[in-house]
Amino acid sequence: MFLELRKVTKNFGGLAAVRQVDLEICEGEMVGLIGPNGAGKTTIFNLISGMYRPDSGEVVFRGTNLLGRKAHQVCREGIGRTFQLAKPFGKLNVVENVMIGSFCRIKDADQAREHALRILETVGLHHRREALAGSLVAAERKRLELAKALATQPKLLLLDEVMAGLNPAEIAQVLTLIRRINQMGITLLIIEHVMGAIMKLSQRVVVVHHGEKIAEGTPGEVASDQRVIEAYLGEEYLLA
Amino acid sequence: MTGALARLARALCGDSRRYLGLAAIVVLCLLPLVVRNPFYAHILIMMFFYASLGLAWNIIGGFAGQLSFGHAAFFGVGAYTSSILSVKLGVSPWLALFAAGGMAAATAAAVSYPCFRLRGPFFALSTIAVAEVLRILAIYFKEFTEGSVGILIPFKPGIANLMFRSKVPYAYFALLLMAAVFAVSWLIEHSRLGYSLLALREDEDAAEALGVNATECKLIAAVLSGFFTGLTGCFSAQYVLFIEPFTEFSLDLSIMISLTAMIGGLGTSVGPILGAFLLTPLQELLRAWLGGQQQGLHLFIYGTVLVVCVILLPNGLITWLSRRLLSLLRHLPAAAAE
Amino acid sequence: MSGQIFGQVIISGLLLGGVYALISIGLTLIFGVIRIVNFAHGEFLMLSMYITFWSFHYWGWDPYFSLAFVTLALFVFGLAAHRSIIQPLLGAPPFMQIFATFGLSIALQGAALFFWKADYRTVQTSYSTSTMNLGPIILSWPRVIAFVVALGITLLLFWFFKHTYVGKAIRAVSQDRDAAQLMGIDIGRVYLITFGLGAACAGMAGALLMPSYYAFPMVGTNFVLAAFVIVVLGGMGNVTGAFIGALIIGVVEAVSGVLIAPQLKEAVYFAIFLLVLLLKPSGLFGIAGAEEVGLK
């Protein structure tokens, strides 16, 4: 079992953001994580990546219990992530931004730079390498987020709404990129709201609502699951 | 041989920045010999002195973005460590010098570890508190520090005692110190540590998600910063030959240190040097011309200049200057095209 | 230590705390609403002390009489300082604001030193040295008055914040700037008034201090660091917290002066300061997370 969440729970001042969630991911999979806004998806990411500490339950990655590990340690273990609201290092340029990720495994600055440049080519940002990160447009920022996380040479990549705000052409490009990343051997757990994309991409989908897992299965199974439809549309809209 | 020399010359002249930089280094090395007037020699020493302090401060203030307004704490620890060791325990000042650096580094580590999790002004306030506490402790523990009376360092000139009759060796020592901190700063800037610190400064969460160990990086930065600040504290003691709690741990010193980096440009290696070279003569000259009779005037001017500079140049002098300089440099002769 | 001495020390501490309270309330307002560290706050105090002194010297005004005048003067000065220095820097990183207020602080100290020299100035009135007895405990009249007035002002401020539009606007901005703006509150004006108010509080404190203290250019630094400790202890932006924190610090200072050593009393409250920063940065009454600087 590549990544396992066992009954993970996280409360914020009395509110259960994530409640007894079980999750299993096998190596090489592309798993989608969907649910209405506020369902707790990003919180789950934060729990996996070490930004938050679970109140109870365990996160086990490749046999190692990640409890108590800080974010940078989790990254070293091989889990990379992007942030929903892209967080570029505004005062550094694009290649320097990616270098920060490269430095996770590479000590030498020149080698890190070369590595970063290769990553930029993979994501298609090489032409903007000297641009200040703060000056990028939204679609480019998303790619930069992706590049930074890729640079840490992760075995598991958590993608948080990388397609939000993109037009259909850009979405298609990102889809191709994500598939290529998966083919490189990286396991993916993807939060997404762009339903068409996630259903096309994922082999398996997990649905979360009010902090709990309410459904799991292939995209087809999940799309026709009553509970999932209710969660997204609300009971009033439930078709007879 | 001539081929290699030619290549070196071409390499140096090929980039106008490089030969200007070289020229600057040569000028700096010659200045202590050329400037003979004791007053101006003192200003030169102070320029190197504040540049060293600014560079050391910049390692955590500029690179890591943790703005300390209590660096006098490490300065004072350095000054007192070396003075107590050399005056009271007869240790050689050269050994005491490194002990001073070490103690200051240890203090920096001890202080930074808990305080670094504080952000912005809270961190600044905590550093001020630390410096104040140390000052008060220095006054209180009279048996070690002679309290408010201060420690007088007996004048025994000679290189073994790190004391000199003429200002020239002091100037070279200060220059060497500045060069050392500059080298360390430059190395950090172009290394993994430097990039990590800059990333931490921009967005700590994002940096940590990429594998940057915030605590470790900042701690290393703090230790380096403290070490060189402590060394400079020892130098100051050996130059002024008198230390007392109020001056060694003073808030004004802390502010002046952070100012040189801020005015020069945070996060660049050259910035603090520029800032120090600009601010120090201003301060010393003001103090000399106005200090005696019109006591408050130099403070008033200093404070006003500070306020005006902050409002007009929020990014520091170096950003503003570098744009001008870069366009100027492009007009200079260069042997080969870049 | 005998009960009487203990009582004496506690009461003196409380009285001292009363004056600290006014200074700190001003600072916590500025800190909590505008989110800047006003290093020049001590100099506002210093200015008001000098104004009180000069109005006594030239016009024979009793310090308590000039209280209103001094408060107004400092309010106006605060407005001016905000307009010229703070406002241009509102978007700048916090350390820039720190440098700017520090520059202001130095400039004011320099000006005071230049115009009025370093001599200690005192105001001698008929009641300067008079005392009253509370059982076995002796209290100095000026300090009691200062305490009572400080308490009165604090209560007045409570009323102001609870029941007036401006007061509520200020509270709103300190809690959530963006939401307040969306509600139609003019943030710029709130900042301006708050800064003036903060300066005015320091001004009041100065006038109240004059009968029992002395003015000199650097007097501000003595008080401003204590004020910062109190503001952090009480919780940034919290007026109740500042008042109670001030009383606590006043007592701590008085007690540690007697129990430990007079020279170490400042070290004690700095140590408390560091502990609070490390253990509960939001202070005794602050909202957790309020220690995140930047605007919520």
Explain this structure to me?
The complex is a heterotrimer of chains A (240), B (338) and C (296). By secondary structure, chain A is α/β, with parallel strands linked by helices. Chain A has helices at 41-49, 71-77, 94-102, 109-123, 138-151, 168-183, 195-201, 219-223, 226-233, and strands spanning 3-12, 15-25, 30-34, 56-61, 64-65, 79-81, 156-160, 187-191, 204-209, 212-217. Chain B is mainly α and 338 residues long. Chain B has one domain: ABC transporter involved in vitamin B12 uptake, BtuC, CATH 1.10.3470. Chain B is built from 16 helices and two strands. Chain C has 296 residues and is mainly alpha-helical. In chain C, a hairpin with a 2-residue loop joins strand 1 and strand 2.
Topology:
The complex is a heterotrimer of chains A (about 240), B (about 350) and C (about 300).
Chain A: E1 3-12, E2 15-25, E3 30-34, H1 41-49, E4 56-61, E5 64-65, H2 71-77, E6 79-81, H3 94-102, H4 109-123, H5 138-151, E7 156-160, H6 168-183, E8 187-191, H7 195-201, E9 204-209, E10 212-217, H8 219-223, H9 226-233
Parallel strand pairs in A: 3-8, 3-9, 6-7, 7-8
Antiparallel strand pairs in A: 1-2, 1-4, 4-5, 9-10
Chain B: H1 2-14, H2 16-34, H3 38-63, H4 72-88, H5 93-115, H6 120-140, H7 142-145, E1 151-152, H8 167-189, H9 192-202, H10 204-209, H11 214-240, E2 242-243, H12 245-248, H13 251-264, H14 271-290, H15 295-312, H16 317-329
Antiparallel strand pairs in B: 1-2
Helix pairs in contact in B: 1-2, 2-8, 3-8, 3-11, 3-13, 3-14, 4-5, 4-6, 4-11, 5-11, 8-11, 9-11, 13-14, 14-15
Chain C: H1 3-34, H2 41-59, H3 67-86, H4 94-116, E1 131-134, E2 137-140, H5 141-163, H6 165-175, H7 177-182, H8 187-209, H9 219-234, H10 239-259, H11 265-279
Antiparallel strand pairs in C: 1-2
Helix pairs in contact in C: 1-5, 1-8, 1-9, 1-10, 2-3, 2-4, 2-8, 2-9, 3-8, 5-6, 5-8, 6-8, 9-10, 9-11, 10-11
